[in-house]
């Protein structure tokens, strides 16, 4: 799907390197087995892929969303971005914020903006013939990761095998899902700890499944297995509840949330409430690379760490530009999809880091169109 530039009264003078076109396609990719967490079940994930073109180069961006996000890209955003300077992605990002006023930005529209913004950053770096980390102004050489999956739909053996595989790959921290069946949570966390050993950090994610008092109870139980990270113990909309668990939970266990943030006011409110020990943000949701770098600035102002949520092939690059970076979620579903969709994907190195390849321009990815074609929607 493609769209031609809109003619706008406020359009700037024609740049030397204008964005020539913006394209978007959606691909629904089945999971290997049915998956679930504390509050949701699924059997497929939809990749919305965006390509922006200028001067013979193609920038790639993507988000994980409903296929309708592709329609937002081609039906609205393409006409706003096309014709603008391909070397100034942040200027296009700002214009997109204004253009969607009547669409409702948080949610699907923010995911569409995110995919376009990522593609524009990739395009800009390719036009300059530099790696994205250089275009972003990296302050780190690599981005630490933690293995993430451990779905509540897994039996004990599946859970143990997945977590131990990550440890075997040199990742020293792993995360599992809890909260769907609280009566089994203590047992499942015990299985996980025995599988990974005493020296690996163990994280749990309830996806908002617990009530406030349940969350406090389970935080105490999880501490018995040296769990260091309690993600969304209550709904991320319950800022008072998050603050309660943060203040009264066990020492050494960080409370975290933020993956469902779509724009800056959400993150500012979470930080103002003192709701988390470490904030999360997702470049494919939170208005792209440009958006997440602004979330990072909010964290910098409070000397608070930021952890990146998923989409590792994008987030690995973004993480290098975040001053108060904690780590990146190396999520099973996205790792699998990105390995299928792209050539040039990064793999964890010893010590559990993703190190962007500085010899390749932009994200360093090439789309595997033939492999994706069977999953195309519409």
What would you say this structure looks like, in words?
This protein folds into 2 domains: 2-129, 2-Layer Sandwich (Enolase-like, domain 1), CATH 3.30.390; 134-367, Enolase-like C-terminal domain (TIM Barrel, Alpha-Beta Barrel), CATH 3.20.20.120. The model is unreliable at 2-9 (pLDDT under 50). The strands form 3 sheets. Strands 5-6-7-8-9-10-11-12 form an 8-stranded parallel beta barrel, surrounded by 8 helices. A 4-stranded antiparallel sheet has the order 1-2-3-4. A two-stranded antiparallel ribbon has the order 13-15. The termini are close together. With 378 residues, it is an alpha/beta fold. The chain has helices at 68-81, 89-99, 108-128, 132-136, 156-168, 182-196, 212-223, 239-248, 264-272, 288-302, 312-319, 332-341, 369-372, and strands spanning 2-3, 21-36, 41-54, 57-64, 143-148, 173-177, 201-205, 227-231, 254-257, 278-281, 306-308, 325-331, 342-343, 353-354, 366-367. Strand 7 (201-205), helix 7 and strand 8 (227-231) form a beta-alpha-beta unit. Helix 2 (89-99) packs antiparallel against helix 3 (108-128). It is globular, with a radius of gyration of 20 Å. The longest helix has 21 residues, at 108-128.
What's the layout of helices and strands?
Blueprint: E1 2-3, E2 21-36, E3 41-54, E4 57-64, H1 68-81, H2 89-99, H3 108-128, H4 132-136, E5 143-148, H5 156-168, E6 173-177, H6 182-196, E7 201-205, H7 212-223, E8 227-231, H8 239-248, E9 254-257, H9 264-272, E10 278-281, H10 288-302, E11 306-308, H11 312-319, E12 325-331, H12 332-341, E13 342-343, E14 353-354, E15 366-367, H13 369-372
Parallel strand pairs: 5-6, 5-12, 6-7, 7-8, 8-9, 9-10, 10-11, 11-12
Antiparallel strand pairs: 1-2, 2-3, 3-4, 5-14, 13-15
């Amino acid at each position: 799907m493609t769209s031609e530039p809109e003619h706008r009264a406020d359009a700037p003078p024609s740049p030397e390197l204008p964005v020539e076109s913006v394209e978007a396609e959606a691909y629904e990719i089945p999971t290997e087995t049915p998956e679930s967490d504390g509050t949701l079940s699924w059997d497929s994930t939809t990749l919305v892929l965006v390509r922006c073109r200028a001067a013979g180069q193609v920038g790639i961006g993507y988000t994980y969303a409903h296929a309708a996000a592709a329609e937002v890209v081609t039906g609205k955003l393409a006409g706003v971005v096309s014709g603008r300077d391909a070397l100034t992605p942040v200027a296009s990002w700002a214009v997109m914020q204004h253009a969607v006023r009547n669409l409702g930005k948080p949610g699907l529209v923010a995911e569409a903006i995110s995919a376009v913004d990522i593609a524009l950053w990739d395009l800009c770096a390719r036009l300059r013939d530099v790696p994205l980390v250089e275009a972003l102004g990296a302050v780190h050489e690599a981005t630490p990761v933690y293995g993430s999956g451990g779905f509540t739909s897994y039996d004990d053996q599946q859970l143990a095998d997945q977590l131990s595989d990550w440890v075997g790959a040199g990742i020293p921290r792993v995360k599992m899902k809890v909260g769907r069946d609280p009566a089994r949570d203590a047992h499942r966390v015990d299985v996980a700890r025995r599988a990974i050993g005493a020296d690996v950090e163990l994280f749990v994610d309830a996806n908002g499944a617990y009530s406030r008092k349940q969350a406090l109870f389970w935080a105490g139980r999880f501490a018995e297995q040296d769990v260091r990270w309690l993600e969304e113990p209550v709904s991320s909309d319950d800022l008072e509840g998050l603050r309660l668990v943060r203040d009264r939970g066990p020492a050494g266990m960080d409370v975290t949330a933020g993956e469902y943030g779509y724009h800056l006011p959400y993150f500012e409110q979470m930080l103002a409430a003192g709701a988390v020990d470490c904030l999360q943000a997702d470049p494919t949701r939170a208005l792209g690379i440009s958006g997440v770098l602004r979330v990072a600035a909010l964290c910098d102002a409070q000397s608070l760490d930021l952890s990146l949520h998923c989409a590792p092939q994008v987030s690995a690059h973004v993480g290098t530009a975040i001053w108060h970076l904690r780590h990146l979620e190396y999520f099973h579903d996205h790792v699998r999809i990105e390995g299928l969709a792209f050539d040039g994907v990064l793999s964890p190195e010893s010590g559990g880091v993703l190190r962007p390849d500085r010899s390749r321009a932009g994200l360093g990815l090439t789309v595997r169109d033939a492999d994706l074609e069977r999953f195309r929607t519409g």
